Amino acid sequence: MKFTETNLKGGFVIELEERRDERGFFARAFCQDEFAAHGLKTEFVQCNLSHNIKRGTLRGLHFQLKPHEEVKFVRCVRGGILDVMIDLRPDSPTKLKYFAAELTGENNKALYIPEGFAHGYMALQDDSLVYYQVSERYTPGAERTVRYDDPDININWPDIKPLIVSAKDQAAPFYRDIKF
């Protein structure tokens, strides 16, 4: 696997190292030793699948409060998404900065999103399927959502119409109004 740190310390784009032959390819999608060698968490307690029927579906921006902060390891296995992570760490020099990457079933890229970050994505294609692992169990009382169009973060989302957002995500507060 190839690990490339993003402009947000601790966030990585992870690419497969494919070994191809006439059958197709083989690649490790996760390796505990390689993750540990880069100082990344290696234990995940839950794996999730998210099916996005329509292009323009937006999910997020979600995170959990301490002590339930979670690492996410996200890969799009069919279709395509614009995946976004936002640094919410209080003392970080990149607080409220974001990193976005296009993850597709063709490019096989993944994002490693560290603790203290919010996460969300938009489906760029119909019938997109996202697989992700998380390091902590979902804890409803610790869950928070940042509004996807928060002007203090100013994410450059693709202009896809119609935009499909859950009522919960539409009602999310701006970062400055979140109770920590």
Assign a percent range to the helix content.
under 10%
CATH architecture field: Sandwich
Alpha carbon gyration radius: 16 Å
Total of DSSP H or I helical runs spanning 4+ residues = 2
**Which segments are poorly predicted (pLDDT under 50) over 5 or more consecutive residues?**
none
CATH third-level topology: Jelly Rolls
Can you describe what's shown?
This protein has two helices and 14 strands, in the order E-E-E-E-H-E-E-E-E-E-E-E-E-E-E-H. The mean pLDDT is 96. It has a six-stranded antiparallel β-sheet with strand order 1-2-10-7-12-5, with no helix packed on it. Strands 6, 8, 9, 11, 13 and 14 form a six-stranded mixed β-sheet that branches. Strand 3 and strand 4 form a beta hairpin. It has one domain (2-177): Jelly Rolls. With 180 residues, it is mainly β.
List keywords for this structure.
180 residues, mainly beta, Jelly Rolls, 6-stranded mixed beta sheet, 6% helix
